[in-house]
Amino acid sequence: MDVKQLPTTAVLSDFVTVCELDGLKVVRVIHPKATAAISLFGAHVLSFQPAGKKDLIWMSEKADFSGTKAIRGGIPVCWPWFGKAAEPSHGFARNSIWTLNEHRENEEGVIISLTLEDSAETRAIWPHAFHAELLIEVTDTLKVSLVSTNTGESDIVIGGALHTYLNIGDVTETIVSELGNEFIEAGERKPSTGNTGFDQEVDRIYPHAAETVVIEDPAYQRRMTVTNSGNNAVVVWNPWEALSISMGDMADDSYKTMVCVESTVYDRSVTLAAGEKHTLTTLIACQ
Fold first, then answer.
1. Pick from 99, 63, 90: nearest CA to 161
2. Residue 134 β-bridge partners
3. How far apart are CA 229 and CA 280, in angstroms?
4. What is the pLDDT of residue 5?
5. What is the DSSP letter of 164?
6. Residues contacting residue 68 through CB under 8 Å, at least 6 positions apart
7. Strand-by-strand arrangement of the 8-11 sheet
8. Closest C-alpha to 79, from 228, 243, 265, 220
9. Per residue in 166-192, is it b (16+ CB within 10 Å) or e — as a string?
């Protein structure tokens, strides 16, 4: 995504503007260290491109930016649950309009804060009071932190994920490593060598992955790292050909240039008492 080409609707500072992308409002960062774009619909990171490098974030060429469905690609915010634990799948945060709360900047980069609070609409889905903040720190790396606060009077139980789609040159040459000695696939626990390549659909939960997972991307001659905290697993996903063909918001061959490496609380295992917070973080870097 060429974020510099998006039409500007408001200038907030030297490095931060608000733009339009089809039906969406997008916060755009153009800084000497990197460019980035974040949709207010879903608090969804659409692009992160360090200076002199290719975009680290993959976006589907058929993504729907109408604001009527979740966006394919980028970094969807799956919250307050992950997967099909409840309806809607992956929670409601990725289909909600977030508020631009704050932006700060200096010569090292830009920090964007987006917030979401409970409303009549969210309480109809999930009857709890909450405050969610997504902090996006754009420097020569990208750090995304999801801060969940229980603003109600009784305990809440949450899960979630920062569902990062990484942009790669050729999935058949890509290796993801530092994944630990076990993975969960289709509900079954299986031994792991600690790394995986791709020659078919991969949809695995790695509950013992290292804090920093490594993605070797030889087609683009680079190595990416994804460093996570606040999670209890890393999910690795590539839909492969048949599933890509079945999805209307993915090109048939788009599986070849993406892999998801997700900081995840996969089992809704975080309990927050009244006033308590939890932070789920992912930090993406490239060498």
1. 90
2. 114, 146
3. 6
4. 85
5. P
6. none
7. 8-11, 16-21, 24-30, 34-39, 44-50
8. 265
9. bbbbebeebebebbbebbbeeeeeeeb
The residue behind tokens 């892999």 is: 259
Give the count of beta carbons closer than 10 Å to the beta carbon of residue 260: 22
Active site amino acids: 163, 262
- For the stretch 152-204, pLDDT in tens is 999 999 999 999 999 999 999 999 999 999 999 999 999 999 999 999 999 99
Distance CA(142)–CA(282), nearest Å, equals 8
What CA–CA distance (Å, rounded) separates 21 from 281?
26
Can you give the C-alpha Rg of the chain in angstroms? 18
Q: Catalogue all structural domains in the chain, each as residue range(s) with its CATH number.
A: 3-286 (2.70.98.10)
CA gap 258, 56 in Å, rounded: 10
Distance CA 244, CA 238 (A): 9
